Amino acid sequence: DLRIQEISREVRDGCQELNLPDSVLRQCMDKLRAQIDLGLNPDTRDKSTVKCFNTYVQDLPTGKEKGQFLALDLGGTNFRVLLITLNGRHFDMQSKIYVVPKAIMIGPGEDLFDHIASCLESFTLEHRVANKNLPLGFTFSFPLNQVGLKNGILTRWTKGFNCAGTVGRDVVEMLNAAVEKRKNTLKIDVVAVLNDTTGTLMSCAWKNHNCKVGVILGTGSNACYVEKIQNVIGFDGDKTKPYVIINTEWGAFGDNGELEFIRTPYDKEIDKNSVNPGKQLHEKMISGMYLGELARLLLVKFVKDKILFGGQASPALLEREKFLTEYISSIESDPRGVFKQCRNVLSKIGISDPTDQDCSNVRYICESVSRRAAHLASAGVATLLNKMEIPSVTVGVDGSLYRYHPHFHNLMYEKIPELLDPRIENPTINLMLSEDGSGRGAALIAASGSEHN
Ligand code: ADP
């Protein structure tokens, strides 16, 4: 029976607070813009939730970069070591994923950096480059107050990491100290530290010179963009060059209450149960680490109200983080009115015979959660584009949420133009899926970083 079931009125009404009309999105944009402007000035940055760190990356790739580079990618689900060869338009990459045990994610910082150095050592030995002193780009995707291309002070951990004794310290120094302990077998030269947004922008710009914004929609959410030097107060990089990439760290937007007017009880519950309560509130409404749990909290509410599953929850549905963000993608990948994936997901969490009406409601709940996330991300991108005032821009995007969710791209592609300043004439905005920004982007920056050494 392919009849499209009606969504229950109670579910529609209950999800209404997740529906953000353009007028509300524009309010978010005005607030975000105000925080960005505070962040771009070192005298007011402390007051801003959106730090707008200078990355010291001032050149987009030329396509002429050459050489062999190492990269480290730490910042979420996987930790990777990469060996990259660049030669004009040719690009080759070998990489290996290493597990970061939970105990190390929340243990002493020294253990984390020792673990990184040990993985680097075994990788470079395997690939016979351990003693070549190769230039290394360190993709470290946590908020860093950069004081140079290869100096970055950790300001906070996010995304489930919390290593003692590291906040306020230079992550490259900590990495070098751990490498130094293995100096008989391992010689590397850290020439740049960057985050995944900058890597994404660079990696996309290598293919498409029009790329001026990098966005991450993965475990966390963040963005960077190309800013004019004259807009960066007290800029202490190379003033002979016109631009610099600014890492906004927009995930922390809302941490001073700017988003209270749209936060729901579900958002507050997520925050309360996180390792960083009160922090990264914008990210907690948008990114992959949280969307599944948001959907679960709504599902549980409607079960308790006896609107879903005849009022019967399963043990898994009542357990925190058991409803994965991947499930939202599966459920929304069913054609409308078909509930094959939906039933499949529900059976995984122990709901065995949902009605079509249940499935219709479950899908609507998932859509409400992902639509809000996509619209908030769109509002963020539109804020940057309005600030840049360039009519034609490519936005590089990376992260599994954007990559695998069946509608995220389309939702953003439709919403961003609606939020652009009408003064921008004939805008052409492209969203480009990034291919391995943390690897190729790191190598491209390392290439320019090693030139300057
Ligand atoms: P990271 O951001 O950590 O570098 P990813 O870009 O792979 O890594 O993002 C991981 C996040 O993406 C996880 O939070 C996960 O829930 C989410 N994710 C993974 N697969 C999917 C999917 N199919 N649909 C939506 N989200 C997904």
Automatic annotation (TrEMBL):
CDD domains: ASKHA_NBD_HK_meta. Pfam families: Hexokinase_1, Hexokinase_2. It comes from Nesidiocoris tenuis. Keywords: ATP-binding, Glycolysis, Kinase, Nucleotide-binding, Transferase. This is Phosphotransferase. Pathway: Carbohydrate degradation; glycolysis; D-glyceraldehyde 3-phosphate and glycerone phosphate from D-glucose: step 1/4; Carbohydrate metabolism; hexose metabolism. InterPro entries: ATPase_NBD, Hexokinase, Hexokinase_C, Hexokinase_N. The lineage of its organism: Eukaryota, Metazoa, Ecdysozoa, Arthropoda, Hexapoda. It catalyses: D-fructose + ATP = D-fructose 6-phosphate + ADP + H(+); a D-hexose + ATP = a D-hexose 6-phosphate + ADP + H(+); D-glucose + ATP = D-glucose 6-phosphate + ADP + H(+). The keyword Disulfide bond does not apply. Its EC number is 2.7.1.-. Belongs to the hexokinase family. Residues 212-447 form the Hexokinase C-terminal domain. Residues 11-206 form the Hexokinase N-terminal domain.
